[in-house]
Automatic annotation (TrEMBL):
Residues 1-31 form the signal peptide. Keywords: Signal, TPR repeat. TPR repeats lie at residues 142-175. This is Tetratricopeptide repeat protein. It holds the Pfam family TPR_11. InterPro entries: TMTC_O-mannosyltransferase, TPR-like_helical_dom_sf, TPR_rpt, UCP035836. It comes from Nitratireductor mangrovi. The keyword RNA-binding does not apply.
Length: 273
């Protein structure tokens, strides 16, 4: 049985590598308005979170050229940083946003995107400060509440994080990215059933994207329902990728169960002595 402690460790390990993606869902839309990932005529014009791997690579090249010519242009730099994050170039994304934040130290959208890059790089305390400075009490932004909450989850402040997720949902009811982040908060605690409830609600929304559905596949797999998890994953990934992901989950859970059995046996030996 996958225990709360096991789920906590697994969830933190997974979310540690996937935080950039989680925050991309929380912050998408801030930069032209968490940053607008809408159309810029120098690339495909598609929202970054909906691009394929090939589209992201092409966008990185075209936006890199545009950025070299205008490194302090807010729309170009924030979109470029977002694309860099999506292709795993976290350090480069942070460098782009750090330079932009120096050029625009009081710009709310820049602070928000900078906070996203800091969090993706694991600089959570600094990211928290940037996100909080971007938030304004008179015009609260649901995307920033969700982003702040995701960082607090990483810092172990789950109760405070969930309060902020619910504030975000008050402002943006049934927003799938927030519901997904809230679900993943429960993964960190090891409450996989509650996590699945929120993720299924997120997936049911018309504007749910691929990452939300992949999160659901993960949580289903963590509960040992591998066939269902693979079926969900195949809707978003290639057959090979889906099979590899589920194989990894099987292996991870098998190793964890073996470790638990060893601990149980050791406990019995000590009790007998």
């Amino acid at each position: 049985m996958f225990t709360k402690r096991d789920a906590n460790a697994t969830g933190k390990r997974w979310l540690g590598t996937a935080l950039a993606v989680v925050l991309a869902a929380s912050l998408a839309g801030c930069a032209n308005s968490r940053m607008t990932t809408g159309s810029i005529n120098r690339d495909s014009g598609r929202a970054v979170e909906h691009m394929s791997a090939q589209e992201l690579e092409r966008a990185a090249v075209s936006l890199g050229d545009a950025y070299a010519k205008a490194p302090t242009d807010k729309a170009i730099a924030t979109r470029y940083a977002s694309v860099l994050q999506m292709i795993g170039k976290t350090d480069q994304s942070l460098a782009v946003m750090r330079k932009l934040a120096i050029a625009h130290p009081k710009e709310r959208s820049v602070l928000a995107a900078y906070g996203k890059s800091l969090a993706a790089a694991g600089e959570f305390e600094t990211a928290l400060d940037a996100i909080r400075r971007a938030q304004t009490p008179e015009y609260p932004d649901w995307k920033l509440f969700s982003a702040e909450a995701a960082i607090l989850d990483q810092l172990g402040n789950s109760n405070e994080a969930r309060t902020l997720y619910r504030k975000a949902l008050d402002l943006k009811p049934d927003e799938p990215s927030v519901l997904s982040n809230l679900g993943m908060s429960y993964v960190l605690e090891g409450d996989l059933r509650t996590a699945e409830t929120y993720l299924r609600k997120a997936v049911a929304q018309r504007n749910a994207d691929s990452r939300v559905r992949q999160n659901l596949a993960l949580v289903v797999g963590l509960q040992g329902r591998f066939e269902e998890a693979e079926k969900l994953a195949r809707q978003e990934l290639s057959t090979t990728q889906a099979e590899a992901n589920v194989a990894y989950l099987r292996s991870m859970l098998a190793q964890q169960n073996a470790w638990n059995q060893l601990k149980d046996e050791e406990g019995k030996k000590k009790a007998a002595n």
